[in-house]
């Protein structure tokens, strides 16, 4: 047991000595910061201007240009449904019918009352005409004529009242049938046969226009002038200035046009709503659908476009590396002296991204050479050489 313990102590001491040697040898290595000792191989590309067609994208929502909730003007039981849910309906098409028996009876009674009132008016008119004639002959007392004229006026008032009752009864009978207010798409029925509806409250269905349809999206207040200019321009029919990406990321078949710029900016968000109109003959756009509105750039001039991988971000600012020819004169490293190519970091202002490329608004000029590969190992002033960058070590 003692020999075993002594052996363990010897092994522990030897282990500590070995670890100390390793640490000391590691500490003796110079700290180079991981930078390459020779020129960094990079790929470069000449900066040039080129046509840049791109699309700004905005989240949009499909809405109906017109939409109406159908509610009954009268109370009663649903006795007829005359459409197929989800179908296209025409203006004036019969959709629902409320039990008409009560309203038809009221209308018939109003017609009869009007006939009685007109008969009474006719009798009163004849009596008045007779008493007027007799009064001219001094054959009756003046009081009799006055009573006759009063009866005639009352009879006329009764006719007017009977007419109003008949119009109301006729209107009620008409409203017992609900028709489509315009051409459009009708939704799922909210009532079934025999449902008791309450006048002005029970929702029967909703009808919305389906061709054309609208798409709403919002823009920042700084863009209002641009969109007002577009609205006032005479854009040719079929122009692809406004296009849609469907929820499945497919491109909608028909371009749209701007119809409305909302009247006011939302003071809380600083945005304003824009409404576009799109034809929809195949009925592919449904109210409430989410989509992406694409607005094509209208900048006609060529622009500087470079690969997006050439741009790096540091603290919210953007940079690229360009190459410069220089002469190195280093007394400590004479072998490195002579002409060399160095990387110079320049701040740029990026614009719209176009796939894997990006527009640069300022910071570099055509004719300069930017580094597009190998920038991970660079710093401002690094010596570089053109060629395939070395593969990263794992």
**Beta-strand residue percentage:** 25-35%
CATH homologous superfamily (4th level) name of the largest domain:
RNA polymerase II/Efflux pump adaptor protein, barrel-sandwich hybrid domain
Mean pLDDT: 82
Question: What is the CATH C level class of the largest domain, in words?
Answer: Mainly Beta
Low-confidence stretches: 1-36
- What is the 3D form? rod-shaped
The CATH topology label of the largest domain is OB fold (Dihydrolipoamide Acetyltransferase, E2P)
Percent helix: 25-40%
Number of strands: 23
Please explain how this structure is put together.
The structure is a single chain. This protein has 394 residues and is of the alpha+beta class. It has 3 domains: 40-53 and 302-386, conserved putative lor/sdh protein from methanococcus maripaludis s2 fold; 55-98 and 177-296, OB fold (Dihydrolipoamide Acetyltransferase, E2P); 101-175, Helix Hairpins (Orthogonal Bundle), CATH 1.10.287. Helix content is 27%, strand content 34%. The strands form 4 sheets. Strands 1, 2, 17, 18, 19, 20, 21, 22 and 23 form a 9-stranded mixed sheet that branches. The protein has a 6-stranded antiparallel sheet with strand order 13-16-3-12-15-14, covered by helices on one side. A hairpin with a 2-residue loop joins β18 (312-314) and β19 (317-328). The chain is rod-shaped, with a radius of gyration of 44 Å.
